[in-house]
Amino acid sequence: MNLPPITLVTPWYGHFAGGAEVAARGFAEQLAARGFQVQVLTTCCRSPFESWWQDVLPAGTEMVGGVTVRRFPVDREGERPFHELVRRHVQAGELTPDEQRAYLLHSINSRELVDYAARRVRDHLVICMPYTQGLVYSTTQALHGRATVMPCLHDEPMFYWITTEEMMTASRKYFFFTPEEKALAVRQFGGKLGRRLVEAAVVGIGVELPFDPTQQQDEQARVRNRYRLPEHYFVYMGRKDPGKNLRTLVEYFRAYRRKEPTAWLVFVGGGLEELVPREPGFLDLGYLPERDKYLVLAQARGLINLCRLESFSLVIMEAWLCGVPVVVDAGGTVTAAHCRRSGGGQVVSDSDEFAEALDALSCPDMRTALGEAGARYVRTQYAWDHVLNRLLREVRHA
Amino acid sequence: MKLLVDGQTLATPEIDRGIGVVFKRLCEHLVPAAAGIEWYMAVRAEHDLRHFSPQVRALVKPVLMGRVLEQDGQERQTAAYTDLLHKVARRHQLDAYWSPNPLMHHVLLPTELSGLTVFATIYDLIPLVLRAECLDAWPEHVRREYLRRVQRLPVWADRLVFISEHSRRDYEQFDSRVSPRADVVPLAVDHARFWPHTAPSPAREPYVLYIGGFECPRKNMARALEAFALLVRGAPLEGQRLAFRVVCSYNARQRDAFLQRAKQLGVAGRVHLTGYVDDDTLAELYRQAAVFFFPSLYEGFGLPVLEAMACGVPVVATRVSSLPEVAGDVAYYCSATDPHDMARLLLQALQERDGPSSRRAAALARARAFRWERTAAAYARLFTAAMRSRLHSVHGPKRPRIAHVVAALPRHLGLWGHSAELVSCLSGKADVTIYLPQPAATRSLADMAVKPLAELPRDLERFDAAVYQIDGDGPHDACMRKLAQKYPGIILLPELKLSPLATAQPHTHASSQACSSSSEHRSSSGLAGRPFGPSANDCTIWESAWALAGCSHAILVGSQWARGQLPVFDSVFVVPHVQVPIAPPEARAELEFRQRFGLRPEQFVLGAFGTVDGERLDLLLRAVRALGQQGYPVRLLLEAGWGDAAGHACLADLAADGARSVVCTGVLDAEMLATAISVCDVVLHVRCPSAGSLPLPLAAALSLGKACLVSNERQFAELPDSVCWKVDRGASELPQLVAYVQALLEQPAVRRQLAANARFFAATYATSQAAAERYLDVVRLVSAAGGCREAA
């Protein structure tokens, strides 16, 4: 298949595993593995949890997972005005259009990268992600309608900023992760951007496990012993962050434990440890090696993710591939829609429904049926071959 | 034409594989599309029809075989089945019988079917060709019955339909009587299920996929396994991680023996038996395979090869029987008996699969040519031509002489467009004279003579049939009706509502006036009406008018639904929807149209054509509003006028609101109408259809290849589900309409496919030629029954 070379532009690459970054890495490596010419343009900043105005990694070219990665120094001068704008935003609740532009331009950015993209990759398909970062905004503006965005949109204040509209307007094509993300974009920009937005593809993100944890009985036992897993447990997997609706999760689970005292909630992942109650029924395993993570997940009765702001939710897909059903919040547009489409989980609105859902997942037959439905959904929609079918079909027509 | 299909296959274990799947696919594409055929199906129980979609179930009339199966033994059952078919054929005046599976032992084959054109589909003669492995291993009574059928089919069936040239040649070698009655219609692949990955992952454990069968020596399993072992041993680089996935059902003994042999060959850990897999799993197995290996010794067609090609996987196959017909020059052909040669070709396919993709592209292109809609269309042509040929030989003149009586000279506008096209097509196949009530209007049409109606009685004896086309209820039509009663012929009712058999509830001033004559007649006669629709837009058949239908030799209507409204009459025939050929407008005309009506390229255009009443207009406007609120940049293009005061009110509201999402064009001429349809992304025909044929704008939209949404009502519901999406009326109508439009706007590939299906349907089934042929069939029948003479 003859395609132009593909360039991915993203602020952090190779050392950080946020949703957009995992997606960028997945696309880059999967395309490269299939023989496509792919490069990644990124910054010398290592992760969003370090300074956005200081280089940690060396500038230059390296190979990461079979992909050429070009790192560029970040712009150093924006830190103070950025923090000033953050302060003003918190105090005033909103920013003027000029302030919104300044906010983005002073967030993580790299003039060198943008210049390189504008001058040196003229014959490439340039895909930028995510929409919240200044680097992406600057690249789309500099490429004058040549860039394609994978915006990873959320219904949040920044989505309604003038910068988002300007970025979308300056882009040539759009790739979305979910139908809900696309619907959000169409609702806001459909009238202005017209056909090219409405006809944009929902490509999704590929999700495949490195091994099948359901077939590893010995290893499951090892993990169970090593982490002293309880007999009957559910899993929360991901960063421990109040924005993930963890307080509600803990409150619901406490209530459930009053009825089912043998049930445990096991936390896997980093973040704020204080969000996990230090009481029976709650177990925080912290970061786990990848293999152990899947083995813990595969033995759970269900994965619970009440976060309402997921743009895709890789962890739900991973649970389904482990044959494990999920429980999600009805207010989580994307996660609830995944459950409706797949039939692989329970959608809850309150504590009572939460308890009913956990009871249902405690029934082996129900658990198996939901898990299998979810696994089928992931395999037929989000295997990399399927995701790249959708992406490449659009690229071919570009 | 009435065709009885043998549906016994539905009750056999074959229904979900092989012949059963082929039979279901054929029926799904054939029955809804071939509107000129009335379908009957002999089934063991009515619930056997559950294997079909609701649309097919609605169109097929079951003929139950219950009593037949109560008989003891196949011989008696066959006799009872034959008897049943004769009775059904007489009762329903059937024309033909199709046995899609005549050689299967479980299926009863009637002994003789005199008076019917008999079709039989032949898949292969494998039991004869591979006699030692198959036929000779069968029980004596099964073998005897098989041979009896093979010997009998060439004289029993009028047409034998083979699935490949090779299977036809096999049969011809066995019995030369096959040749003059043989046709070849290749099978096809379900492209909605078997499709390729654009760039399949090379990272997974590569495997050779093989579809075998332990019960089936011709699948060549032993040599296939040996070839795989040779491949692994001889090519350590390519064979390093290579697995061998074998798709077939098995029992423990067969599995153990096969794995034991694999162990002897040194490939035990690489061989995986999948057991039975469903089609979705099979499709994914094809897509993920490094190579598809099919070293069969004999095939009737070779569907797995076609499925693999459609999935973009390289095929290594034997150059035997029908396989070259399927794979052309895109397969790697190997010896059927030499495992070393098989291994060599497997290695070549593996080495070339990541190279230049020209062979893959060629295989995909070749597979795309094998489509079920094409196979079904070939069957439809075959059925129709054979039944027509029989009709010609039995009934009537080759070139009939027809008096076509019509109130006004046919012209290309609205309903009249159908008429003009039909009459034009007839002129090449019959001697047609047009009779008009008004001599002043008399002028020539194409090469047909046009004469005053007053001369018809004097001329009648010169004709094989008189056809009275009843399009309205005006004074001229009244005159025609009188003649039609005095000199009975065929009445052609393109639109039931406007005919004297029915009286429209007046919904416009014009139609009130048009209906006045029949209203007067109704009040003077005091006869009760027979309503056939619940809303004010429906109409009533008046018993007073039934006399005309009753004395006519035949009635021609535009849809199965219209036919269903006239149940008391025996000779009602459906003339398939007539398309008016409309040339696609030039790009410049589209551009000018867009500029004239302010339609920007980035906006989507939804078209609604023809008269709509207030309720329908309100629905369309609410749908457009809902789409707008969700951000969809749509413009509604409204052509023609509104049928009632509510429509006018809606229009006034629109004007008051300055509704920028609606463009009203007024009535357009044919050329502009074609241009308007062409600029649309989706054409909406969501309304209660009139009472006959397809409206001209919808027919034109299908011909021009547009994605169409129609109401799931009457003749609209008869359109194949693959040709247009159907919106149910009622509470869910608005959300359903909005959801369908959203889906079509968001997915241009779906829109294009729906449009392509529409274009194929219009060009294949709904042509004026097909309608003219059907018309002539009825003329021949009538002519044979006595032709034109004064009523007694």
Describe what is shown at a glance.
The complex is a heterodimer of chains A (398) and B (792). Chain A has 398 residues and is α/β, with parallel strands linked by helices.
Describe this structure in words.
The complex is a heterodimer of chains A (398) and B (792). Chain A has 398 residues and is of the alpha/beta class. Chain A contains 16 helices and 14 strands. In chain A, the strands form 3 sheets. Chain A has an 8-stranded mixed sheet with strand order 3-4-2-1-5-6-7-8, sandwiched between helices. Chain A has a 3-stranded parallel sheet with strand order 9-10-11, covered by helices on one side. Chain A has a 3-stranded parallel sheet with strand order 12-13-14, sandwiched between helices. In chain B, α24 (587-597) packs across α27. Chain B starts with a strand and ends in an 8-residue tail after the last helix. Residues 503-538 of chain B have low confidence and may be disordered. Chains A and B meet through α1, α7, α8 and α16 of A and α11 of B.
Name the descriptors.
heterodimer; A: 398 residues; alpha/beta; Rossmann fold; 2 domains; 8-stranded mixed sheet; 3-stranded parallel sheet; 14 strands; 15% strand; globular; B: 792 residues; 7-stranded parallel sheet; 32 helices
Secondary structure layout:
The complex is a heterodimer of chains A (398) and B (792).
Chain A: E1 6-9, H1 19-33, E2 38-43, E3 60-64, E4 67-72, H2 79-92, H3 97-106, H4 111-120, E5 125-128, H5 134-142, E6 147-149, H6 162-170, E7 173-176, H7 179-193, H8 195-198, E8 201-202, H9 217-226, E9 233-237, H10 246-259, E10 264-268, E11 282-286, H11 290-298, E12 303-305, H12 314-321, E13 326-329, H13 333-342, E14 345-348, H14 351-361, H15 364-381, H16 384-397
Helix pairs in contact in A: 2-3, 3-5, 4-5, 5-6, 9-11, 10-14, 12-15
Chain B: E1 2-6, H1 18-30, E2 38-43, H2 54-59, E3 60-64, H3 66-69, H4 73-92, E4 96-99, E5 117-122, H5 126-129, H6 140-156, E6 159-162, H7 165-174, E7 182-184, E8 207-211, H8 221-234, H9 236-239, E9 243-247, H10 252-264, E10 271-273, H11 279-288, E11 291-294, H12 303-310, E12 315-318, H13 323-327, E13 332-334, H14 339-352, H15 358-368, H16 372-394, E14 401-406, H17 414-427, E15 431-436, E16 449-452, H18 456-459, E17 465-469, H19 475-486, E18 490-493, E19 502-504, H20 509-514, H21 516-525, E20 529-531, E21 539-542, H22 543-551, E22 554-557, H23 560-564, E23 572-574, H24 587-597, E24 604-608, H25 614-629, E25 634-639, H26 645-657, E26 662-666, H27 670-679, E27 682-685, H28 696-703, E28 707-711, H29 714-718, E29 725-727, H30 733-746, H31 748-764, H32 768-784
Parallel strand pairs in B: 1-2, 1-4, 2-3, 4-5, 5-6, 6-7, 8-9, 8-11, 9-10, 11-12, 12-13, 14-15, 14-17, 15-16, 17-18, 18-22, 22-23, 24-25, 24-27, 25-26, 27-28, 28-29
Antiparallel strand pairs in B: 19-21, 20-21
